[in-house]
Amino acid sequence: MTTRLENLLGAFGVAVNDSMDDAFDEACAVGDSAPAAMILIHENPDTRIEALARYLALSHSGTVRLVDRLSQAGWVARETCEDKRAVVLVLTKTGAKVAERLLEGRRKSLGKALAGLSATDRKVLERVLPQMLNNLVTSREQADHTCRYCDSGACEREGCPLPD
After folding, report:
1. In terms of Cα–Cα distance, which of 52, 94, 54, 55 is closest to 76?
2. Strand arrangement of the beta sheet that strand 76-80 belongs to
3. pLDDT truncated to tens, each residue of the chain (164 aa)?
4. Which runs of consecutive H residues, i.e. helices, occur in the chain?
5. Any transmembrane segments, and where (predicted)?
6. Contact criterion met (CB below 8 Å) for 17 and 36
């Protein structure tokens, strides 16, 4: 039987996901994987299609189609790199603004979830959430996928709790 804590945690996960989805739809209504792709390219300069496919858990062809849509929207450009067989994905100026709106929507959504919590309660969450994440995310591949919406600067400042 499910405990109340498990039920609350499940409902919280759904509510956070729905809240972020709403924020993402306002900033970027180009498809389910588009917000994650935009954030990943923003946070990881010199992203290639192969890396994007791994982070998004999409096939190569599915990722190419997604990049085509983002390119048609005027948000992503393909640039050549040293490896002539590959391209680097970069955000256009408009694309960078979209990515910033996506990250801001994420911040607001998560800020709403934390509103009203005391500093002590926030410290407790910051202490227990890494363990909870590590219970679920056990490989680098899973970590890459889990972090697809992350503001990488936060983990660079504080240290990412997920596997390398």
Report:
1. 94
2. 47-48, 87-91, 76-80
3. 779 888 888 898 989 988 888 888 887 776 678 999 999 999 988 899 999 999 999 999 999 999 999 999 999 999 887 777 778 999 999 999 999 999 999 999 999 999 999 999 999 998 999 899 888 888 888 888 888 888 877 777 777 887 77
4. 4-27, 34-43, 49-56, 60-72, 93-114, 119-136, 140-146, 152-158
5. none
6. no
- Distance (Å, whole) CA 69 – CA 139: 30
Measured CA to CA, the distance from residue 92 to residue 114 in angstroms comes to 33
Q: Among residues 34, 69, 31, 27, which one has the least CA distance to residue 52?
A: 34
pTM for this structure?
A: 0.85
